[in-house]
Design brief:
single chain; binds phosphoric acid mono(formamide)ester; four-stranded parallel β-sheet; alpha/beta; 12 helices; five-stranded parallel β-sheet; 14% strand; binds norvaline
Protein backbone atom coordinates (compact mmCIF):
# COMPACT_ATOMS: atom_id res chain seq x y z
CA UNK A 1 0.00 0.00 0.00
CA UNK A 2 1.65 3.27 -1.16
CA UNK A 3 -1.28 5.67 -0.81
CA UNK A 4 -4.84 5.78 0.52
CA UNK A 5 -6.77 7.25 -2.40
CA UNK A 6 -10.10 5.42 -2.28
CA UNK A 7 -11.75 2.40 -0.68
CA UNK A 8 -11.88 0.53 -4.00
CA UNK A 9 -8.05 0.31 -3.99
CA UNK A 10 -7.83 -1.63 -0.71
CA UNK A 11 -8.10 -5.39 -0.34
CA UNK A 12 -10.01 -6.96 2.55
CA UNK A 13 -6.67 -8.09 4.05
CA UNK A 14 -5.22 -4.57 3.89
CA UNK A 15 -8.30 -3.19 5.64
CA UNK A 16 -8.06 -5.78 8.44
CA UNK A 17 -4.33 -5.05 8.78
CA UNK A 18 -5.04 -1.33 9.26
CA UNK A 19 -7.83 -2.06 11.76
CA UNK A 20 -5.59 -4.37 13.80
CA UNK A 21 -2.93 -1.68 14.04
CA UNK A 22 -5.60 0.93 14.86
CA UNK A 23 -6.83 -1.24 17.77
CA UNK A 24 -3.24 -1.57 19.02
CA UNK A 25 -2.59 2.19 18.78
CA UNK A 26 -5.86 2.89 20.61
CA UNK A 27 -4.79 0.53 23.39
CA UNK A 28 -1.36 2.15 23.61
CA UNK A 29 -2.83 5.65 23.79
CA UNK A 30 -5.31 4.65 26.52
CA UNK A 31 -2.51 3.05 28.55
CA UNK A 32 -0.03 5.91 28.07
CA UNK A 33 2.35 3.69 26.11
CA UNK A 34 4.42 5.95 23.83
CA UNK A 35 4.25 5.06 20.11
CA UNK A 36 6.52 7.51 18.26
CA UNK A 37 6.48 5.64 14.93
CA UNK A 38 6.73 8.88 12.90
CA UNK A 39 9.36 10.74 14.92
CA UNK A 40 10.76 13.60 12.86
CA UNK A 41 8.27 13.15 9.98
CA UNK A 42 6.03 15.87 8.57
CA UNK A 43 2.51 15.61 7.17
CA UNK A 44 1.07 18.41 5.00
CA UNK A 45 -2.72 18.70 5.28
CA UNK A 46 -4.37 20.52 2.35
CA UNK A 47 -7.98 21.57 2.92
CA UNK A 48 -10.22 22.91 0.14
CA UNK A 49 -13.34 22.24 2.26
CA UNK A 50 -14.26 22.75 5.91
CA UNK A 51 -13.46 20.14 8.55
CA UNK A 52 -13.67 19.54 12.29
CA UNK A 53 -12.92 15.84 12.75
CA UNK A 54 -10.50 15.22 9.90
CA UNK A 55 -8.31 18.21 10.67
CA UNK A 56 -8.17 17.75 14.42
CA UNK A 57 -7.73 13.98 14.36
CA UNK A 58 -4.93 14.05 11.78
CA UNK A 59 -3.19 16.92 13.52
CA UNK A 60 -3.41 15.34 16.98
CA UNK A 61 -2.59 11.90 15.60
CA UNK A 62 0.58 13.16 13.98
CA UNK A 63 1.73 14.75 17.28
CA UNK A 64 0.99 11.52 19.17
CA UNK A 65 3.14 9.63 16.65
CA UNK A 66 6.05 12.00 17.24
CA UNK A 67 5.65 13.84 13.94
CA UNK A 68 4.70 17.34 12.85
CA UNK A 69 1.50 18.28 11.00
CA UNK A 70 1.20 21.37 8.79
CA UNK A 71 -2.27 22.77 8.16
CA UNK A 72 -2.37 24.14 4.60
CA UNK A 73 -5.54 25.96 3.64
CA UNK A 74 -5.82 25.87 -0.14
CA UNK A 75 -6.78 29.54 -0.21
CA UNK A 76 -3.32 30.35 1.18
CA UNK A 77 -1.46 28.04 -1.20
CA UNK A 78 -0.57 28.88 -4.80
CA UNK A 79 -2.82 25.92 -5.75
CA UNK A 80 -5.71 28.25 -4.87
CA UNK A 81 -4.40 30.69 -7.52
CA UNK A 82 -4.12 28.05 -10.21
CA UNK A 83 -0.68 26.46 -9.75
CA UNK A 84 -1.11 22.99 -11.26
CA UNK A 85 -1.43 20.06 -8.89
CA UNK A 86 1.36 18.31 -10.82
CA UNK A 87 3.83 21.04 -9.80
CA UNK A 88 2.48 21.31 -6.25
CA UNK A 89 2.95 17.55 -5.87
CA UNK A 90 6.55 17.63 -7.06
CA UNK A 91 7.45 20.58 -4.81
CA UNK A 92 5.74 19.34 -1.65
CA UNK A 93 7.33 15.91 -2.10
CA UNK A 94 10.69 17.58 -1.53
CA UNK A 95 9.70 19.01 1.88
CA UNK A 96 7.19 16.61 3.40
CA UNK A 97 6.91 12.90 4.23
CA UNK A 98 3.20 12.63 3.43
CA UNK A 99 0.17 14.65 2.30
CA UNK A 100 -3.44 14.45 3.40
CA UNK A 101 -5.81 16.29 1.07
CA UNK A 102 -9.52 17.16 1.29
CA UNK A 103 -10.86 18.44 -2.00
CA UNK A 104 -13.64 18.16 -4.57
CA UNK A 105 -12.42 16.06 -7.49
CA UNK A 106 -11.02 12.57 -6.97
CA UNK A 107 -8.72 13.22 -9.95
CA UNK A 108 -6.82 15.85 -7.97
CA UNK A 109 -5.93 13.27 -5.32
CA UNK A 110 -4.96 10.70 -7.95
CA UNK A 111 -2.80 13.34 -9.70
CA UNK A 112 -1.00 14.23 -6.49
CA UNK A 113 -0.14 10.55 -6.09
CA UNK A 114 0.96 10.23 -9.70
CA UNK A 115 3.21 13.29 -9.81
CA UNK A 116 4.46 13.34 -6.22
CA UNK A 117 6.84 10.85 -4.65
CA UNK A 118 5.40 10.65 -1.11
CA UNK A 119 2.29 8.90 0.31
CA UNK A 120 -1.03 10.66 -0.38
CA UNK A 121 -4.05 10.23 1.90
CA UNK A 122 -7.56 11.14 0.76
CA UNK A 123 -9.23 13.13 3.54
CA UNK A 124 -12.50 13.29 1.53
CA UNK A 125 -13.37 13.98 -2.09
CA UNK A 126 -16.76 14.08 -3.79
CA UNK A 127 -16.13 10.42 -4.67
CA UNK A 128 -14.64 8.89 -1.55
CA UNK A 129 -14.04 9.22 2.19
CA UNK A 130 -11.86 6.19 3.00
CA UNK A 131 -10.55 7.46 6.37
CA UNK A 132 -14.11 7.74 7.67
CA UNK A 133 -15.04 4.23 6.57
CA UNK A 134 -11.95 2.70 8.19
CA UNK A 135 -13.11 4.31 11.46
CA UNK A 136 -16.65 3.03 10.86
CA UNK A 137 -15.40 -0.53 10.31
CA UNK A 138 -13.22 -0.27 13.41
CA UNK A 139 -16.28 0.80 15.43
CA UNK A 140 -18.44 -2.03 14.14
CA UNK A 141 -15.79 -4.61 15.01
CA UNK A 142 -15.34 -3.01 18.44
CA UNK A 143 -19.07 -3.17 19.27
CA UNK A 144 -19.98 -6.43 17.50
CA UNK A 145 -16.69 -8.34 17.87
CA UNK A 146 -16.81 -9.56 14.25
CA UNK A 147 -17.91 -8.73 10.71
CA UNK A 148 -19.05 -12.27 10.03
CA UNK A 149 -22.71 -12.76 9.26
CA UNK A 150 -23.54 -9.05 9.70
CA UNK A 151 -25.58 -6.79 7.43
CA UNK A 152 -25.00 -3.04 6.95
CA UNK A 153 -27.77 -0.86 5.54
CA UNK A 154 -27.06 2.61 4.11
CA UNK A 155 -29.98 5.00 3.70
CA UNK A 156 -29.74 8.29 1.76
CA UNK A 157 -27.61 10.00 -0.85
CA UNK A 158 -25.39 7.87 -3.11
CA UNK A 159 -22.49 10.20 -2.26
CA UNK A 160 -18.84 9.90 -1.15
CA UNK A 161 -19.91 8.15 2.06
CA UNK A 162 -22.21 5.71 0.25
CA UNK A 163 -19.47 4.87 -2.26
CA UNK A 164 -16.92 4.18 0.46
CA UNK A 165 -19.24 2.45 2.92
CA UNK A 166 -20.66 0.05 0.36
CA UNK A 167 -17.17 -0.82 -0.89
CA UNK A 168 -15.52 -1.11 2.54
CA UNK A 169 -18.24 -3.17 4.22
CA UNK A 170 -18.40 -5.57 1.26
CA UNK A 171 -14.61 -5.95 1.28
CA UNK A 172 -14.61 -7.20 4.89
CA UNK A 173 -17.23 -9.79 3.97
CA UNK A 174 -20.44 -8.22 5.23
CA UNK A 175 -23.79 -8.12 3.43
CA UNK A 176 -24.80 -4.62 2.32
CA UNK A 177 -28.11 -3.06 1.35
CA UNK A 178 -28.67 0.51 0.21
CA UNK A 179 -31.77 2.65 -0.13
CA UNK A 180 -31.19 5.65 -2.40
CA UNK A 181 -33.62 7.62 -4.58
CA UNK A 182 -33.45 6.59 -8.24
CA UNK A 183 -31.51 9.73 -9.30
CA UNK A 184 -29.08 9.70 -6.39
CA UNK A 185 -27.48 6.30 -6.68
CA UNK A 186 -23.82 5.52 -5.88
CA UNK A 187 -21.06 5.79 -8.49
CA UNK A 188 -21.13 3.29 -11.36
CA UNK A 189 -17.71 1.82 -10.54
CA UNK A 190 -18.90 1.19 -6.99
CA UNK A 191 -22.14 -0.39 -8.22
CA UNK A 192 -20.15 -2.63 -10.55
CA UNK A 193 -17.89 -3.82 -7.72
CA UNK A 194 -20.81 -4.19 -5.32
CA UNK A 195 -22.90 -6.21 -7.76
CA UNK A 196 -19.95 -8.52 -8.44
CA UNK A 197 -19.85 -9.65 -4.79
CA UNK A 198 -23.33 -11.21 -4.76
CA UNK A 199 -23.83 -9.69 -1.28
CA UNK A 200 -25.31 -6.32 -2.33
CA UNK A 201 -28.85 -5.06 -2.94
CA UNK A 202 -30.13 -1.58 -3.76
CA UNK A 203 -33.67 -0.24 -3.66
CA UNK A 204 -35.54 3.05 -3.35
CA UNK A 205 -37.47 1.68 -0.33
CA UNK A 206 -35.72 2.40 3.01
CA UNK A 207 -37.89 -0.06 4.99
CA UNK A 208 -37.04 -2.87 2.62
CA UNK A 209 -33.29 -2.14 2.82
CA UNK A 210 -33.31 -1.88 6.62
CA UNK A 211 -34.92 -5.28 7.23
CA UNK A 212 -32.73 -7.36 9.59
CA UNK A 213 -29.83 -4.89 9.41
CA UNK A 214 -27.20 -5.04 12.16
CA UNK A 215 -25.68 -1.65 11.32
CA UNK A 216 -27.60 1.35 9.95
CA UNK A 217 -25.76 4.31 8.47
CA UNK A 218 -26.82 7.56 6.87
CA UNK A 219 -25.28 10.88 5.83
CA UNK A 220 -26.38 14.43 5.02
CA UNK A 221 -28.70 15.00 2.07
CA UNK A 222 -26.57 17.88 0.74
CA UNK A 223 -22.80 17.45 0.92
CA UNK A 224 -20.16 20.16 0.97
CA UNK A 225 -20.30 21.95 -2.37
CA UNK A 226 -24.01 21.12 -2.86
CA UNK A 227 -25.40 23.84 -0.61
CA UNK A 228 -27.16 25.44 -3.60
CA UNK A 229 -29.18 22.24 -4.15
CA UNK A 230 -30.30 21.96 -0.52
CA UNK A 231 -33.99 22.65 -1.15
CA UNK A 232 -34.30 20.31 -4.17
CA UNK A 233 -32.50 17.66 -2.17
CA UNK A 234 -34.77 18.07 0.85
CA UNK A 235 -37.68 17.14 -1.39
CA UNK A 236 -35.86 14.27 -3.11
CA UNK A 237 -34.75 12.65 0.16
CA UNK A 238 -37.99 13.00 2.10
CA UNK A 239 -38.55 9.62 3.79
CA UNK A 240 -34.86 8.61 3.56
CA UNK A 241 -34.45 9.00 7.31
CA UNK A 242 -33.26 6.73 10.11
CA UNK A 243 -36.17 6.88 12.56
CA UNK A 244 -38.15 4.58 14.87
CA UNK A 245 -39.96 2.97 11.96
CA UNK A 246 -36.65 1.97 10.39
CA UNK A 247 -35.23 0.79 13.72
CA UNK A 248 -38.33 -1.41 14.21
CA UNK A 249 -37.54 -3.53 11.14
CA UNK A 250 -33.77 -3.73 11.82
CA UNK A 251 -32.26 -6.33 14.16
CA UNK A 252 -32.90 -5.83 17.88
CA UNK A 253 -29.38 -4.76 18.77
CA UNK A 254 -28.72 -2.80 15.57
CA UNK A 255 -26.03 -0.11 15.73
CA UNK A 256 -26.42 3.32 14.16
CA UNK A 257 -23.45 5.25 12.78
CA UNK A 258 -23.12 8.74 11.27
CA UNK A 259 -19.91 10.32 10.02
CA UNK A 260 -21.07 13.76 11.28
CA UNK A 261 -21.96 16.55 10.99
CA UNK A 262 -25.58 15.33 11.34
CA UNK A 263 -28.72 17.22 10.37
CA UNK A 264 -31.27 16.19 12.96
CA UNK A 265 -34.82 15.58 11.71
CA UNK A 266 -33.49 15.33 8.15
CA UNK A 267 -31.47 12.13 7.58
CA UNK A 268 -31.83 11.01 11.23
CA UNK A 269 -34.24 11.84 14.05
CA UNK A 270 -32.89 13.42 17.24
CA UNK A 271 -34.30 10.46 19.18
CA UNK A 272 -32.44 7.77 17.23
CA UNK A 273 -29.30 9.92 17.14
CA UNK A 274 -29.25 10.34 20.93
CA UNK A 275 -30.12 6.69 21.58
CA UNK A 276 -27.05 5.74 19.57
CA UNK A 277 -24.76 8.59 20.64
CA UNK A 278 -22.34 6.16 22.30
CA UNK A 279 -21.63 4.41 19.00
CA UNK A 280 -21.61 7.62 16.96
CA UNK A 281 -19.07 9.40 19.17
CA UNK A 282 -16.89 6.30 19.51
CA UNK A 283 -16.92 6.30 15.70
CA UNK A 284 -15.74 9.93 15.73
CA UNK A 285 -12.96 9.05 18.20
CA UNK A 286 -11.91 6.12 16.05
CA UNK A 287 -11.04 8.51 13.22
CA UNK A 288 -7.95 9.32 15.29
CA UNK A 289 -6.85 5.72 15.79
CA UNK A 290 -7.65 4.52 12.26
CA UNK A 291 -5.82 7.44 10.65
CA UNK A 292 -2.79 6.97 12.89
CA UNK A 293 -2.69 3.38 11.65
CA UNK A 294 -2.89 4.56 8.03
CA UNK A 295 -0.08 7.07 8.57
CA UNK A 296 2.15 4.46 10.23
CA UNK A 297 1.51 1.96 7.42
CA UNK A 298 2.30 4.56 4.75
CA UNK A 299 4.96 6.74 6.34
CA UNK A 300 6.97 4.78 8.92
CA UNK A 301 10.54 3.72 7.93
N1 LIG B 1 -16.76 13.16 9.24
C1 LIG B 1 -15.89 14.11 8.85
O1 LIG B 1 -15.09 13.92 7.92
O2 LIG B 1 -15.94 15.26 9.57
P1 LIG B 1 -15.26 16.65 9.24
O3 LIG B 1 -15.91 17.18 7.98
O4 LIG B 1 -15.54 17.49 10.42
O5 LIG B 1 -13.79 16.43 9.01
N1 LIG C 1 -21.06 13.63 2.45
C1 LIG C 1 -20.54 14.62 3.37
C2 LIG C 1 -19.60 13.98 4.34
C3 LIG C 1 -19.02 14.94 5.35
C4 LIG C 1 -18.03 14.29 6.28
C5 LIG C 1 -19.85 15.73 2.59
O1 LIG C 1 -19.13 15.42 1.63
O2 LIG C 1 -20.06 16.90 2.91
Amino acid sequence: MKHLLKMLDLSGEEIIDILNLADQLKYELKHNIPHPHLKGKTLGMIFQKASTRTRVSFETGMYQLGGYPLFLSSSDLQIGRGEPVQDTARVLSRYLDGIMIRTFEQKEVEDLAEYGSIPIINGLTDFSHPCQVLADLMTVREFKGTFEGLKMCYIGDGNNMANSLITGFLKVGMTVSAACPENYRPDEKVMEFANSTGRFTITDKPLEAAADADVLITDVWASMGQEGEAEIRKAAFKGYQINDEIMAVANDKAMVLHCLPAHREEEITTKVFEEHAEEIFEEAENRLHAQKAVMVKLMAD
